[in-house]
Amino acid sequence: MKTDPRIHDFMFLWKPVGGVRADTSYYIHQPIYYDGAFHTYLIRLDIRPSWTGRISEIALGWTGVHGSVEVKQLALRSATLQDRIRVTWAQFWIPQTLNARTVNAIAGPVLFGHAFALPLALLFLVLLPVMYRAHRHGLRRRAAVFSALTPTRVPPWLYTASATFLILWLLYDLRETYNHAQTLRSEFRYFLGDAPRPRHHFELDDFYDVIDAIQSVVPSENPIGFFSSRPLFVKARYFLFPRQVFDREFHPDYLVVFQDPNITYRRGQLSEKDMVVVDRVTPFGRFGEDAFIYKRIHD
Amino acid sequence: MTDIFQTILIFVGLSFLGYGLLQVSRSTEVRRGERLLLGLALSLGLIPLILFFTLLAGGSLGLIPSWLIVAGASLGFGLWGLDVYRSGWSRPQWPASKLPTLPTAVSIVLAGIIAVLVMEKLVFVTIQGFAFPTYFWDAIANWNYRAKILHAVGRLDLNPQSDTFLGGGGTHYPMGPSLFRAWVTTLMGKWSEPAVAAHSLVTYGLLFGIIWIRLSKMIGWLFSLVFAYLTVSIPLMVYHAYAGYADLLVAFFFAACLIYGYEYLVARDPLSGVVSALFLASALFSKNEGIVLVLPAIMVTVVAALWSGRVTLRSAAIYFGIAIGLILPWIALKAYFGLPYAPTETHAGFAFHLGGLTQLFTVVFLQGSFSLFGLFFVVTTILFSSLWWKTDVGFLALPVFLFAGAVMAVFLFTDNYEFLENQMTINRTLMIAMPSYIYLAGVSLGRKWRAENSPPETARADHAMNQQTIPPSGA
Lengths: 299, 475
Fold this sequence. Notes:
The complex is a heterodimer. Chain A has 7 helices and 15 strands. Chain A has helices at about 80-95, 115-135, 140-145, 145-150, 155-190, 205-215, 235-240, and strands at about 1-5, 10-15, 25-30, 55-65, 70, 110, 115, 225, 245, 255-260, 265, 270, 275-280, 280-285, 290-295. In chain A, a hairpin with a 2-residue loop joins strand 12 (about 270) and strand 13 (about 275-280).
């Protein structure tokens, strides 16, 4: 499957026959690559109890607006041992590119169904007594690279243990480096350098370019009413400062609608959920498929 | 590109300016390169305080003219050049304890790997900081937004009904980070996103630099490089290096406060003591966690040091006189306007959430924010806890554990549990203690297994005393 930058998420959905409620559907969420290239996504369905029994419908779902998706092949099959290994490996390498929650918490890569830190920590704890015993049973010279070369009071097994810990930390860090590389790869493709306009930045889509467009076409002294079904008002207020920006208020002369399907324009009127909210407006500017600027008409 | 170049010039200038000011003290414990870093680090904390006093007195952000900074930086550069001319590039020999060195080939390979990984992080965060506008929520809603308002208004608005009251945004948050960012952009003459991002980037670099330099005196350059690397490679730390939040800043100020406070205890170096107090004041003016969590931890530690006779009452009084004296106007202002220390009043209420311990364990050990820090913590605590009980390293351990304990108490025994459950702040707050803990582990390593020919810790104080009596070679 290959996705463009306006696609942010991918889900596999199904509806079992004879479920608790007839209309209940279930889904598995699958993180995706943001690099515009084809990737094979392997999803284990048998880990969900709702997948057992008969299934009436299956579906693929994506989040994002006006995005494009190309699917070369879709296959449902019983998982072989090789498949299970491939799923584990593919799951481990799914990149955790930037998102708004990254600064609060990082889920981390997953290996064998657990955060990568856990298998590494367990491996260390398993190796610790092994290292200790190895040193105690006269294998000091062979096992402890450092201790043989550094005559100190530091117990030789501790040197080996420290070196092992550092190697595990480096491994984890290398995996993090891969995340950074994937983030940069996406950014260089869709935002930096000679990336085609409008530029896209992860879940913000072309928001930054929309803001630039507003700044260039709406006179700087005019306040703006900002409408979006996404929580972007605070961002708009920040980037448009010192211009006044009002959240979902219709009184300013200029009204910006960004990715808000509830706001529609028809014959000089703006409606919110089919109710006319501004009577006399004219389209003032358009940016892409889902960003519009309207100007109120005063006689 | 011009913005980035101007920003670099400002930070280099601040570094030399701070270097010049630190030359007032003849401390032998703080070396030349370290003084440059310290000059910059103290600028990050003290300039906002000076600006706050200026604004409170009715002045404007532009009151400190750029020519004054240029003149100060030039003077500092001159003093630095003079110092280099007098003593050359050679590094002084420290009699401190050192672990035995690894074979050269192993050292080179290890240092090479670490250097590459650190460089990767620096490149990543620099691109994120300089090539993109502010991205994360709190920076947009508070820290940088406030800076933008302060930059535009130029003065302190004390009208609580106004949108620009105390810079707008979250008015109950300390103003330090926003004031510094507003000031840098005022110096540049325009609002600049790269200049604002540089504040976090520089803090990240300083964290690495100061931990490396300080630990190298105790455990050698390579082992200290490993500990400095562990600090900056904590995954969450990397994103905070450009996020525009204040958590990294508090983490740095807290660590620096402990590093130099401990240095004062060990070497009786007055400059280190003063620097520690200044870093404490800086932490208090950066985030509410400073006053709520850092200050009590430091207070208990100083009382413990006082009780054990490690510091005199006079030293303790001077220490807190500097730190609390500098932050008092802000505390008074908050009290006057009734600004809370918790995000909202409801979060201050007591409640027991012992089930949160499982979540806390998950956050530290089973997620990706902290790499293998959980394991590192457990192993090093088992390894060094006896040392902390028996030696003065305990005075470094005590505030770290008090802080961590206070964090856990806040999340488990108050309604702030909500932020543990939704993981909005728990990771960032725990992150504040991590550089200090890693430094503590480094110091403990040096103390537990010092080389057989290295002198005891108390010899450092004697060495410092002797150094001060020997006139400089050029005199």
